[in-house]
Model the fold of this input.
Amino acid sequence: MEVNINNVNVVELVNLDISLMAIEDKIIVLHDNYKSGYECEDCNETGFVTCTSCDGSGLNRFDSNCTTCEGKKQLVCPVCKGQKLIIEIPQSARTLPTTGVVVSMGPECHAMKITKAISNAKLIIEMYHKFKSITEAKEEEKIQNKNISNWTKDLEETPIRLGSRVIFGPHVGTFLPMKGNVKLKIMRVTEPLAVIFGKGCESKDFIDFESNNY
Done:
């Protein structure tokens, strides 16, 4: 599944031809795809394996549909039963937090309020230059540029904003069961446990899934 994040607060699921945008004080988080250690290796996390009767061709030796896979070329993985993960996942793994990237924010989130204020200030400057005298326009531009500078600094100091990688509990928010194995979750902007920084968070393999519950 191709996911297009175009930095305009919209998440586009290209293959499904739909887009999502958070509302109110909600945020949409795209799960990181790190390994838990419980993925099914037999099907490589797809939930399906190649049909051995037809070697993935979907046809038998008479060029008719394979009776085993019914011409589909693949079968449901017998190990994970199509679940992509092994059947029994230890409780310790189920209760561990996970991580993801904020890809959309509702208008009531602090970062989006600041972003809107900056946009409005730039619009005011443009309108003054179009309809007011040069003196008035320059004076207003000076005022609005000072506001923009302060708001930009505030935005940079706001921990949760578009593009932030956050860590959150397994039962937080609402999971969106989208096709194509796209893992999206909607939650309130106050629900993430922390924002993660540093090069190490890019590998998404820093959570120990074998840990005991605390």
Summary: Helices lie at 91-94, 110-131, 134-157. Residues 134-157 form the longest helix (24 residues). The chain has a mean pLDDT of 84.
